[in-house]
Amino acid sequence: MSRQYSIKAEAIAEERKRVNDDLDKVDVSRVVAMDELELREVGPGDVHLKILAVSGEHNVDHAALADTVNITEARGGTIYPGNSALGEVIRTGKDVTKFKAGDIVITHCNGDPDPYGFPLRIWAYDQPESIGWYGEEAVVGDWQLIKAPLDCGLNLWEIAALPLRAPTAYHMWRRAKGIFRLKVSEEKLPTLNVLAFGGGVSELFLMLAKSEGHNAYFCSGSEERRAALEKHGIEGIDQLQFNRFAERSDVKAFIGESKTRTNGTGMHIVCDMLRGPVFAPGLAIAARMGVNVSAGWQLSTGIDYNSAGASTKQITLDHTHYETIEGCEEATALYGSVFKPTVHHEIYSFEDLPRAMSEMHENKMTGIPIIRVAKDMPESVQGLLE
Ligand SMILES: NC(=O)c1ccc[n+]([C@@H]2O[C@H](COP(=O)([O-])OP(=O)(O)OC[C@H]3O[C@@H](n4cnc5c(N)ncnc54)[C@H](OP(=O)(O)O)[C@@H]3O)[C@@H](O)[C@H]2O)c1
Predict the structure, then answer these.
(1) Atom of ligand 1 nearest to the CA of 226
(2) How buried is 166 (Cβ within 10 angstroms: 0-12 exposed, 13-18 middle, 19+ buried)?
(3) Strands of the chain, DSSP E
(4) What is the pLDDT at residue 192?
(5) How confident is the model at residue 1 (pLDDT cuts 50, 70, 90)?
(6) Is residue 334 one of the residues assigned to a domain?
(7) Using CA positions, which residue lies closest to atom 35 of ligand 1?
(8) Between β-strands 2-8 and 46-55, what pairing exists: parallel, antiparallel or unpaired?
(9) Domain assignment of residue 335, yes or no
């Protein structure tokens, strides 16, 4: 048996009833609950893991709120969440050659690759039967694991911050840049202006842009997170100064400020994982030939825009969904050199995971939230527990 967090459809219904369906008032910690699970047998291609640390991921929030779809109900009433983890291999099935006991690994969450390698479904979310990694132990297929780059210069918590968000950012960046370069070559415009709105994926997206010499701008309401990115040469724009775009006048003021910062050009690439009120300013500040890329819908799933305006400015809207497994490997190779994530100031204990999720929901994070699952850490990571 492994202690494991679950989300149950009854808990979602009860919490929704308690707050009269007002999602702003939902207490996610009343929905994500400690449970127990009997792990499946270790098959020939399986790996048995001790989970060391996990990151708080936004899809867990979506699952607990049932705001996009009620994925828990759709999956029969219970899900075991958590699709980003760092663990130690305890034992391996007889056909596993890539890993051995003692290896430290990270997961990816591509649950069901399509013919091109992109996920049809996400592990521990909509992939049927998938068991997530907010638990003390797990049994996974060896294809779901990547060796953790322990010597990349990051500490253990920083490495644990990246398995889901870094591949997402990596794919979005390659896509947005590729689309832009189809329209405007590097010879014609070597340096791009790149904007992203607050959030862990966006921070990593901007680190990729900056590492290639572009001008990067982070529009966030969090002073701590803006300050952290400024250290990497990424300019902060205070979203609260524009009232999180509550009124048209706020959007206009943001456009004015961003135009000033970019000498009147605007942004060639915009990463918008939030939609809702953030979409309009992101689109309006696009430069000619701009690309607006998204893999998220935190504030809204719908968007509305003027197609004629987008057409005459030759704007491309692009949508992505996680990465291929090869892409996850490539993103992992950039840990420490490109990806230097900001981690929330508190490392939560396993027992405090529900509080971490609720504080993430309340937007109190100063960086990516990390939960230490294992009390005893293996010798191989002792030097990384800063
Ligand atoms: N499809 C995929 O492959 C994929 C992968 C990863 C994530 N996602 C989705 O992408 C979205 C963001 O994920 P993430 O991991 O980057 O999130 P995250 O690290 O949890 O960050 C969320 C950010 O939302 C911002 N925020 C919160 N309330 C806001 C509001 N009222 N107005 C404006 N901004 C607000 C905050 O930015 P401030 O700094 O401004 O406060 C916060 O930093 C989620 O919907 C997630 O599920 C999708």
Answers:
(1) 39
(2) buried
(3) 2-8, 32-37, 46-55, 78-79, 85-92, 104-107, 137-141, 145-147, 193-197, 215-220, 235-238, 267-271, 286-294, 316-319, 343-349, 368-372
(4) 98
(5) confident
(6) no
(7) 198
(8) unpaired
(9) no
Mean pLDDT, all residues of the chain: 97
- Give the residue, by CA position, lying nearest to ligand 1 atom 10: 296
Residues 111 and 250 in one domain: no
Q: Report how far ligand 1's centroid is from the alpha carbon of 311 (Å).
A: 28
What's the CA-to-centroid distance between 298 and ligand 1, angstroms? 6
Number of domains in the chain: 2
**Mutational pocket test of ligand 1: of 65, 171, 201, 247, the residue with most ligand atoms within 8 Å of the beta carbon:** 201
The CATH number of the domain where 86 resides is what?
3.90.180.10
Whole-number Å distance, alpha carbon 228 to ligand 1 midpoint, is 17
Compute, in angstroms, the gap from residue 117 CA to the centroid of ligand 1. Answer: 25
* For range 315-332, the mean pLDDT: 98
Q: Two tokens at 361?
A: 């929901």
Which range marks the domain in which residue 243 is found?
Answer: 167-319
Q: How far is it, in rounded angstroms, from Cα 368 to Cα 158?
A: 9
How far is it, in rounded angstroms, from Cα 294 to Cα 374? Answer: 34
Give the residue, by CA position, lying nearest to ligand 1 atom 33. Answer: 244
| DSSP code of residue 235 | E
> Could you tell me the distance, in angstroms and rounded to a whole number, from the CA of residue 58 to the centre of ligand 1?
7
For residue 295, give the ligand 1 atom closest to its CA. Answer: 1
State pLDDT tens for residues 191-236: 999 999 999 999 999 999 999 999 999 999 999 999 999 999 999 9
Ligand 1 mean position, distance from CA 297 (Å): 8
